[in-house]
Design brief:
The chain has about 425 residues and is of the alpha/beta class. It folds into three domains: about 10-70, Orthogonal Bundle (Arc Repressor Mutant, subunit A), CATH 1.10.10; about 90-95 and about 335-435, Aspartate Aminotransferase, domain 1 (Alpha-Beta Complex); about 115-330, Aspartate Aminotransferase, domain 2. The chain has helices at about 10-20, 35-40, 45-60, 105-110, 125-135, 155-165, 180-185, 205-210, 235-245, 285, 300-310, 320-330, 330-360, 380-390, 420-435, and strands at about 60-65, 70, 90, 145-150, 170-175, 190-200, 200, 215-220, 250-255, 275-280, 295-300, 370-375, 390, 395, 410-415. The strands form four sheets. The chain has an eight-stranded mixed beta sheet with strand order 4-11-10-9-8-5-6-7, sandwiched between helices. The protein has a three-stranded antiparallel beta sheet with strand order 12-15-14, with helices on one face. It starts with 9 loop residues before the first helix and ends with a helix. The mean pLDDT is about 90.
Amino acid sequence: MSDQITGTTAADIAASVRDLRDRGVLGAGSALPPVRELAATLGVNRNTAVAAYRQLAQAGLVVSRGRAGTVIAGHESVAQEGYAADTVLRDVGTGNPDPRLIPDPSSALATVAGRPVLYGEPVIDRGLETWAQEWVAGDLDSIDFRITITSGAVDAVERLLAQALMRDDAVALEDPCFLASIHTVRLGGYRAVPVPVDEQGMTVDGLRAALDAGVRAVICTPRAQNPTGASLTPERAAELRAVLADHPYVLLIEDDHFSMLSGRPYESLIGPAHRRYALVRSVSKFLGPDMCLAVAATDPTTAERLAMRLSPGTTWVSHLLQRLTLTQLTDPDVTASIAAAREHYVERNARFSSLLRDAGLDAPQTDGLSLWVALPRPARLVAERLMRRGWLARTGDEFALDERAAPSHHLRLTVHDLSDDDAETLVTDLVAATR
């Protein structure tokens, strides 16, 4: 194969491999020659061949298999949040909110039409901007910030990274990690640097190591970390702020996705002297996933860069959606229903955790829509056994940054919508699956 690849620069070599793939000479799974062999055949420096393979990997055209070499990438399915497609099993791995607890927007919809918004007008609804400033001001006390409205938290993170980074820049991600963050970083061509998570959130040693490795951005979940449910304690947050104090220009993104539904206080890593930061709060968990809107409170420089990517005529968030969000979040009945939903998730998850502990399994009392259940056996084995009993669960392997890591011994279970009888049945089946 190395005699079919041509070029003397990294770009030319990468283009040659792409051309061979496009013409069908190389198909999915086809092995590329080892770097040393390719460099010798082409008469180039080994680093040139390494750079070519790196460009191909960043473009998603090849996949490194470690000692098994580098192969042409196929159209492999990747894990996504939400319900699994085409299954007759009871899905307890969705990560979804309970649809019965999402406020009905019908009455609010009738009030938000009003005057149409035209090109050239402000992209942020003034009423929503004022409300959002008040929402985050108490949590970003004495810190100068600006409000930007984006099409959800994932959209915010993608734009924040794009305005600050170049391809192959390193980004610190929690490990295990939220699936959307993994996909956003990989598709953007950035390098994910894992930071372990424990029961108090992102670890201090892990963050320090990532910063020493040269990361230019850090994505942190201050509470209800997905998938573990961990929330930062005041002590851990203070330690992490101290580490970040020496890196004020590293972009710090806090994804406070659970915000209004969280039973834990918000602990921020954004210190008063940090220069590049963003606090992102989506409304999808409490107003519904189809309400694609998030508030991003950022430093002024970042806000200006984001505004350039949300200019009139391109990709601003619909004012109808902005008005609908504001109308609902200022309605006492809606805010009361959100508070009731918070209590529901806490109560149902606590009950299931209690059942697990009584059965001899470990499920710490955490925050969020799901539980992170520790197992005495590899999670994939347990999940396969649960499938035979009619349950579909998510294993911790799906949330690992390193696909070559040791098999996970955790399941992420979404159980808040189970009846008492179904919850007891699942625990019984789970115990049997771990034997």
